[in-house]
Amino acid sequence: MKICKHLSRYSIILGTMFLFTCSGQLKTKQQAAISVEQAKLMRPHSSNEGDNVHRVIQDRTMNLWFATTGNGVYRYDGKTFTNFTTKDGLLSNGVFAMLQDKTGKIWFGTDHGLSCFDGKTFSQIPITFNENQIGNFEKVQASNIFVNTILQDKKGMFWFASESGVFCYDGKEFTWFIDNPNLVNAKKFNPKNVIGMIEDKKGNIWFTTRAEGVYCFDGSELVNYQPNNLKWFYSIFEDSKGNIWVGNRAGDGVYQFDGKNFTSQLTSLGLKEAVVYSMIQDNAGNIWFGTEADDVSKRQSTGGVWRYDGKKLKNFTTTDGLSNNAIFTVFEDRNKHLWIGGRNTSLTKYDGKTFTKFW
């Protein structure tokens, strides 16, 4: 794992980077003098400019974790970034999902399956099924599963949203969601290419998909929604009033579900042509949208993050201090700071007044 030191404002650092191997041995590597014009961290080096900071979580001990799609994961303790990759036991350096479970372990969903970190060691979790199971079960190796989202519900069951569909894990065995014996599925829905997933306040499990719209499972029945005949939805979250919001991937903004119907929202305020990758509601009640422009030719100048206070929608871009205008994740930490990750493995922090570029 690589450790990146926090660089002070207008300083030149000549020091030592400390690298720890899996066996705990200490190694050192000389770091060249680096001149910086603002407080920031050494930028991760990715071979692909399309790689991004995809997810952010904060663990029980206040560490922040950043999942990247090309550099593994970074743990930030407020001073130092520690990088974990396949060299440390992570299954893949393409990480798309993270979750800290009820026992404190951190799960990572990658483009090649699942890894779990117990605080010291990474373990690989192969996704396999019992030979006696029928229906949709197959023997599936971890390397064949692209995991987009991880959820642990109120009862402790793990849910994994993947390109192959949704599967569950009770701590002992994996089961395909659609083979749940309690599932009422008269239309024979079989969710695939599942991207987003949440459990709402009522205990319903929601899925967004790449080609089948939005699904809701209330514990027995599976219902499908395709707002405005759209089928590709990315992000999903529940606001403080219990409304479900879904972000469209095809450049049609966001839709809100009031318990009966989905309706298009905020298009008149400027969110019409945005691809919405991330949505959160901050501690003050503002809703934030992480976006990029649907029109490729406009992505250098538009997109960014949007803040909705219930009346007005305000857009922030690189002109305001963002590192990149293509934003994949927005996260509020326990200090009420926003962490904004995007393409080109970019990372920006917003404290309510100032944007600080980290990567």
- Binned strand content: over 45%
Main beta-sheet strand count, sense and barrel state: 6 strands, antiparallel
Q: What is the overall silhouette?
A: globular
Unreliable stretches (pLDDT < 50, length at least 5) are 5-41, 131-139
The helix content is under 10%
Mean pLDDT: 84
Instruction: Specify the CATH class of the domain at 226-359.
Output: Mainly Beta
How large, in whole angstroms, is the Cα Rg?
21 Å
Number of discrete helical segments:
0
N/C terminus separation: 18 Å
Please give the CATH architecture of the domain at 226-359.
7 Propeller
What structural category do the secondary elements indicate?
mainly beta
**Count of β-strands:** 34
CATH superfamily of the domain at 226-359: YVTN repeat-like/Quinoprotein amine dehydrogenase
The neighbouring-strand order within the major sheet is: 6-1-10-9-8-7
Short description:
This protein is an all-beta fold and 359 residues long. The protein has strands spanning 2-7, 12-13, 16-20, 26-30, 34-35, 40-41, 53-58, 64-68, 73-76, 80-84, 95-100, 106-110, 113-117, 122-125, 147-152, 158-162, 165-169, 174-176, 194-199, 205-209, 214-217, 222-225, 233-238, 244-248, 254-257, 262-265, 274-281, 287-293, 303-308, 313-316, 327-332, 338-342, 346-350, 355-357.
